[in-house]
Every structure is written in C-alpha cells, then in structure tokens.
Amino acid sequence: MPGPTAHPLRPVTADEVAAFERDGVVHLPAILPAVWIDHLVDPVEAAIADPVVTTDMTALQAAVSGIPLDPDKTGRFLSGVDHWLHDPAFASFATTSPLPAIAGALLDAERIHLYEDSVLVKEPGTAEATTLHQDLGYFHLTGDRICTTWVPLDPVDFKTGAVAYLRGSHRSGLVHRPNWFVSDEPLPGSEGVPIPEVTDDDPRLVRYTVQPGDVVVHHAATLHCAGPNRSSSTRRRAVSVRYCGDGVHHLVRAGAPTKAHHPPHGDVRSGDPVVDHPGCPVVWERTIGSTR
Ligand SMILES: O=C(O)CCC(=O)C(=O)O
User: How far apart are the CA of 156 and the centre of ligand 1, in A?
Assistant: First the structure.
C-alpha cells in the first residue's frame, strides 16, 4: 500500500540533532503531515480489536502481579508489535513516511533500517503505567545508531499518559534488563544491569505535551516510562517505529522477545552487521532521502 508522502512538514534542525545527542531524546513539533495520522487511525483500531495482534497489558499486569483484574476497571492498555510484517498500512507508514529520514538525520546515518513497530494504546481510565525501561535490552541489536520514534494519534499530556524520558541516560554505556513493561519484574531468562530507582520528581525526567503531527524520538539506550491515562474521555493512541543505522550489529539477547529472522527460525546470527534483510530492511539512504 503506497503511503501519502515521504516529506516531513519541515526539516530536522541542527538544534534538534544536538538535543537528541545531548539528552537522548528530542520532541519534534509539527513535523508529520496529518495525512499520516489519518492513515494510521483505522489500522490501529483494527489492531487493538484483535487479541491475536495486540496484548491486553492491563490483564498482563494483573497476571504478573498476582492481583486479580478488577472487573470495574474501565481502561485498557493495549499493545502490539511488528504490525508492519503482516499489515501493509503499517508497513507503508514505517517504510515510506517521513520517519526514516527523520531517524537518518538524528542518528547522522548513511542508511536506516526498520527494526520494529509497536501499537501503544491507553484507553481513558487506564490505570497501568508503563514501567521504567530501556529499549536496547529488548532489541537484538548492539551499536549506537538505534532509536525509537513515538507518534501520538491524540493530544497527550501528563494526565493522559505522556512518556517521561531520563535525559542523558543514553550515555551510561549500560544495557538494562528488560521487564514486563507494566511491572518492574524482569523478563525470565533475560540479562542486563538492573533498572535504577528513579523518583517521579527526578529533575532529569522530561515529559512533553504533544499533538498529532509531533514526533518524539529517543535513543535506544534512554531510560523512559509513561503514566496511566487518568482522563475519563481522552484516548492515548500512539505508534512507535524503531530504526537502526549503519554500524549496528545483531546481538541475540537471551530472554528478550524473539524475532523470526533470528535462530532457531532465521538465518541472522549474533555478530552479523545489520544489512538489508527482509526482517530488517533498508528504508532510507542519505543519498536519496536526506533532509539536511
Ligand atoms: O507509550 C508508552 O506507554 C511507552 C512507549 C515506549 O516505551 C516506547 O515506545 O519505547
């Protein structure tokens, strides 16, 4: 399915690149054409209506914590991964929207590969926070040029579940142990350094009030979390697309959710450089798509 346009509404500025390098996160206001938000609405609705495609994270949180799900709970946190592999609308968003060029500019990359996409919907009244975590521990990758682009489909603020980022944490050199995303319990069999204790009032935490058309991009090593959706009427729908650039290698991480192109099913092994591959295709090259 061809997408609307690969051109962002404006270039990524030098100040935004510097902020991303310094803080490990940057808010890019008004950069994504509205047609792309419209493009995502129906596919996101279809994804969250299908329990094979998305996980009910509210139910998962109850299962992991051992506290039975409250039947009066209204809001649900629904999350899925790798939609692009089976849904052409997600594939065109991840591969032909302005996002790959935005990632290329921020990562100062010669080429950009698609790694993964995620649907992240917190319906009004969702009690579950997204636990502090670092994407790198989930990604079967090692290297510096790896990022997540977070694309809101609704206005999002502190009340409705804005993501909070620990500025500068991408420079720690640490790979943190992945957790259940709605519980700080580590994934069984996974490896990595424990997630540090960070209080809500830590001055390094930054949250952005965002609008559809904005994109927030964080480095894969940046620690981040998100609040519940305390609104009784406003949805918090978001799609994340995760990219990597040149200089990145595959590293199959024990205990992290598996990818089909890694053993035992696939041919990609730890230590292999990331090259064009159906599981991690090239989606942008500087010579043909540069925004600066
Ligand atoms: O949307 C959320 O609640 C969390 C987002 C996140 O952790 C991510 O996209 O990496």
Answer: 13
Q: Is 120 near ligand 1, meaning CB less than 6 Å away?
A: yes
- Report if residue 7 sits inside a domain: no
The residues of the chain scoring below 50 in pLDDT are: 292
What is the C-alpha separation between 7 and 105, in angstroms, rounded? 13
pTM over 0.90: yes
CA 2, CA 244: separation in Å to the nearest integer? 22
Q: How far apart are CA 289 and CA 80, in angstroms?
A: 29
Q: Residue 292's pLDDT is what? A: 43
Distance, in Å, from the CA atom of 56 to the CA atom of 76, rounded to the nearest integer, reads 7
Question: Cα(210) to centroid of ligand 1, in Å?
Answer: 14
At 269, which CATH number?
Answer: 2.60.120.620
Residue 179 in contact with ligand 1 by CB distance below 6 A: no
Q: Quick one: pLDDT at residue 72?
A: 78
Specify which residues 36 forms β-bridges with: none
Centre of ligand 1 from the C-alpha of residue 278, in Å:
25
Whether residue 208 is contained in a domain is answered as yes
67-113, pLDDT tens digit by residue?
Answer: 888 877 789 999 999 999 999 999 999 999 999 999 999 999 999 99
Domains in the chain, number: 1
Both structure tokens of 114: 């698609």
Q: Is residue 33 part of a domain?
A: yes
pLDDT of residue 1: 53
pLDDT value of residue 38:
97
pLDDT in tens, 6-19: 899 999 999 999 99
Whether 97 lines ligand 1, by a CB cut-off of 6 Å, is: no
3-state secondary structure of 55: strand
| Range(s) of the domain holding residue 144 | 14-289
- Ligand 1 centroid distance, CA of 118 (Å): 8
Q: Which residue has the tokens 């489909």?
A: 153
Q: Which residue owns the Cα nearest ligand 1 atom 9?
A: 240
Q: Is residue 224 part of a domain?
A: yes
